[in-house]
Amino acid sequence: MILSLFVIFALGPIIVLIFNSVKGSAELGRNPLGPPREVIIENYPDAWETGNFSTTVRNSLIIVTGTVSGVLLFGGMAAYSLAKLKLPRIVPNILIIYLLVISSLPVQLFLVPLFVLWRTLHLIDNLLGVIIIYIALYSPFSIFLMRAYIIQIPGDFEDAARIEGANEWQVFTKIVVPLSWPVFLSVGLIVSMFAWNEFLIATVFLTKREVFTVVTSYFAFSKRFGVDWGLTSAAAVMMIIPIISVFLIFQRRFIQGLYQGGIKG
Amino acid sequence: MWKKGEIILAFYINSKKIRPEFKRMVLRKKIIPWLFLLPILLLHLFVTIGPSISSIYYSLTDWSGLGTAKFIGIGNFQQLWFNDKSFISAFSHNSIWLFYCIITFVMALLVASLLAPLKKGGIAIRTVLFIPFVLSSVVTASIWRNLLNPDRGIGAQLAKIGIYGLDKAFLGITKTSLFTVFFIDNWHWWVFIMVLLLTAMQNIPKELYEAARVDGVNRWQEFRYVTLPGIRPTLFFLILMTGIWTFQTFDYIWILTYGGPAGSSEVLGTLVLKNAFIRLEAGYAAAIGLTMSLFSGILVSIFVYLKKKGLEI
Amino acid sequence: MKKLLLWIVVLMLVATFSLVGCKTAPEAVEAEEVAEEVEEEAAVVEETPVVEEEKAKIVIWGDTVDGDTALTGWEEDIIPQFLEQNKNIEIEYTQQPNVHETTRTALLGGAGPDIVISYGPSFASELAKGGYLYPLDDFVKEYGWDNVFAPWSLTSYIVEGSLYALPDEIETLVLYYNKTLFDEKGWKPPTTIDELLVLCKDIAEEGIIPFAHCNAEWRPANEWFVGEFLNHAGGTQVVYEALIGQGSWTDPSLVYSMEILNEIVQKGWFTGGLDRYYTTTFDEQLAMFGDGKAAMNIEGTWSICDYPNYFGEEAGNSNDWDWVPMPSVTGEAIFDVGIGSVWGINKNTEYPEATAKFIDYFYSSEVQGRLLSGVMGKAPAPVELEEKDLKGVDPRYAEILLSLSKAFEANNYGYTTWTFLGPKSNLYLVEEIEKVWAGDITVEQYLEGMQEIFSEELEAGEGLPIPVR
Fold first, then answer.
1. Whole-prediction pTM value?
2. Domain C173-334+412-459, CATH number (from 3.40.190.10, 3.40.50.360, 3.40.50.720, 3.30.1050.10)
3. What is the ipTM of this complex?
């Protein structure tokens, strides 16, 4: 059926990549696309060493963790405010339009002044600098998502808490956040994916080798792996395994989240 | 907004130290929502709004990125829109890219309509098809660069079994470079559109389909008269967003062709970076960035206008 | 459960920030530690503290980009050896992140290191013109530098009649060829442009690719070939005049040089065709060259360290490489100059003599030879290197360097485009040549555009220093 063609189209290249990741250069010359006849699993530890994965994976993880925490915390607060707290009537609409506008601004518009500002603040070549940028970039989409969810939580729980004397922060942390864990999970997954894979900001703001992420390191050092496409493939596979695994486990939330955020927002 | 009376009341209460619970309530009602919004708003101001406004200012200067900026009014824009061949060329490439996106939508609509009626199997297929989307652009570029190698890639293997003509270095030929990059980018993100359209299709009430079947329509008519109208809002929204995102495309061009060969795949996104960091013309780059935003703004306005006019979008 | 979730989020944030804090702190701590160590070493080496003579102290700033190998090189080799000979001088070498920024700020405030190192030729130019550097003319006489330095290097940074800075890290390009292949086929490496063209034809007829060149991974590689042909097929004097604004890039000999380059490209002699040139990676290129599928490679001295991976047993072939100077119109050996870094002395230095002494030491043939072969693998300074100091270096590289010195004495040097052209001209040169190759514009139009952009940059004062010929 037509669908199977599409499946081959989507998966084929990835399967070829996996095949190639365990081939030696000699076999790659003879058999560039097919299944490996001889499996050279050493490609993986070799690629790990050459590509300095211990540093880059750590950097990428730090960035992802920081970004997700920031987005969930600050974005969650904003979403709660827009959904539940009493702002003057037109403000939520203005803010929603504001978020829409912000998310359609091309990065290139504010890239240069941002870079100069960051340079003055010594945030270049600094993972924290990138985390801050990512939080700002990925929050509009996340706020839409979280707001849409929070708004349909029945207000009874909060009111009950308020009567008990809880302040807003407690209402937020003890009632709303726990009840919203599905959307928090979705947002966390999606933002993790974007933060792990991001290229433009990472390349511009992280220039020293010690702070390279998996993505920028792969880009900068594809030469280091030499003509050994097997090594390069192994490196690529190591880069995509985490994100594919996480995706496969949580795929329903992922896709659902993207839909909610994309359309409802 | 704050009614005058309430402000006065607040001050009154404050000064008179009367009924603290009332004061607290007033405080809670008015300020706390803003406090919750504050962190993210500050962050945006710092990272996005502030620099964007700076960009507007810098686009009116001859700033190089270092040192001082001299005000030159709309000089950058005049140069850019009327004198710069690379801008016209890049802009046209972005437009052609938008045109290529028709392929993306055809693929997405086709597969979505095939998957919509399926139940369990559909989810598995959808998941599998989605995998390319979670790959980073560098990895995707790397995979395809290898697959498109004229001596070792798909083209070469096809030539061995008698299908000729596909074993060229497509990325290195000026006529095909843009499309090739689009093809690779498409492989990555067409599923995103497909999945969104699919979900929209699945939200069309079954009764409409049943009614159509009663009238005895064939599959194509069913698609045209039930499905398409049913997903219209989503479809138009996606077309709008695609339009906006297309003009910002950057990653794959930068990684695969750097705008070449001979500027045949240069786009506005890469032009901005080249001007800002290589030619050291940050003011000019800001002008390009502003032009890009202007264009996005026009697209959004058209969309909003059509929506207002009730064009059931 | 609910509280736990929030705590997890907060903890993640805290962990992130502290980890990030740890990330950037060590650098600063390291730099301080290194500075302390160096001072301690200096204190230890010094045997008898001379009470009357105050010790001169020289501060030098490198960039963290140089990395640990450079740091070690300085700490364990360069500095101690100097201190042995000069017991009344102390040296402090540290690596600063973004050294240009830090230096500029410090200099503006009247402070800063004694030795100012510029990574790339333009920063030094900015400082020299701005009056932040100490004049070097007396030292040139005192240390006899005009006998040791290449003449052009002593005329690069002259502002109002005085010399202010000295180039370092010289690179050049030559014509590498697969020696085994040449011997097999009975080919002779060319010395003139005409010989080169004939040779290419012969090579192509044998079904072998004349040049293994590519720019898929580094688009600006175009500038290597444009630069080489402008200088060698056009003429270094003509290029010089264009660079100082007295001639023009549209000079007929330059037009001729670009047409030759275009001819070579159109005949598919670069990697078997333009599309291959644009899509081949460095490794494929070098493999092609090593295996003998391609015969020649015009590239820089930087590639010598890559060749061992592609030639010989380990690479799966029995080939070896050799080099000749890039052919020129007359057949004379000309080398285009690329400058990596530039040294100057801070105008406000307290110890100009001591600093000059260190410079004399650093730029000596002995030290440069050591740095070349072992310690840091650094590209050499433009001084005359003696054979005995080049012992640890690949003999072919040593040969190149020795020929370099001779050529410099005879003023036979050219201009690499990335060293001597401003950013706009350079980008134009790299990108527009592809349009010539695609047939979109003619060579004349290309050079006319070049002249336009170049003059604009020159007028705006954005040009780079050109050594007086």
1. 0.79
2. 3.40.190.10
3. 0.79
